[in-house]
Amino acid sequence: MKKSSTILLIISLMALGIGIYMLATPHKDYVETKAVIDRIESEWIDEDNTEYHVFVTYTYEGTTYEEAELGDYKASYAEGKEITIMVDPKDPTNIEGTGRQGAAIYATVIGGVMLLVSIFMKLRGK
User: Fold this and answer.
1) Are 70 and 54 in contact (CB under 8 A)?
2) What is the pLDDT along the chain (126 residues), one digit of tens a residue?
């Protein structure tokens, strides 16, 4: 059983580290701007997985970018909806959604819980 608590400890430290790193380095030096969702395409992968492609129009420093693929999808997205995106000021065609912070928090919380469980298991001798 000691081996399982050691493996859990390693996995929890990795998840915690990734989550903290993502929280500490949000979108590099990207800036927020508003975008409107033009269209959402779905691609069936298999019976359990569907991939979504979100295309937006946004304006950054006076230039309008149309039909740019976001690379992020949330169930709350709908065509015509205004959302906040992150734009790379060095290359305004490089955009990201704001979903990264949610994933970072999730990884940090899960990693923290797993870490506590692995410590408890080690203390109990399992």
Assistant:
1) yes
2) 567 777 888 888 888 888 887 777 655 688 889 999 999 999 888 888 888 999 999 999 999 999 999 988 888 899 999 999 989 999 999 898 876 666 777 788 888 888 888 888 878 775
Contact 112, 16 (CB under 8 A): yes
Amino acid at 106: Y
Q: Are 19 and 106 in contact (CB under 8 A)?
A: yes
Report helix, strand and coil shares of the chain as percent, to nearest 5.
Answer: 35, 40, 25
The pTM (predicted TM-score) of the whole model is: 0.61
Radius of gyration of the CA atoms of the chain, in A: 19
39 close to 79: Cβ distance less than 8 angstroms? yes
Residue 99: phi and psi, rounded to 5, are -70, -10
User: Phi/psi of residue 36, each to 5°?
Assistant: -115, 135
Per-residue burial over 26-39, b if 16 or more Cβ lie within 10 Å, else e, is ebeebeebebebee
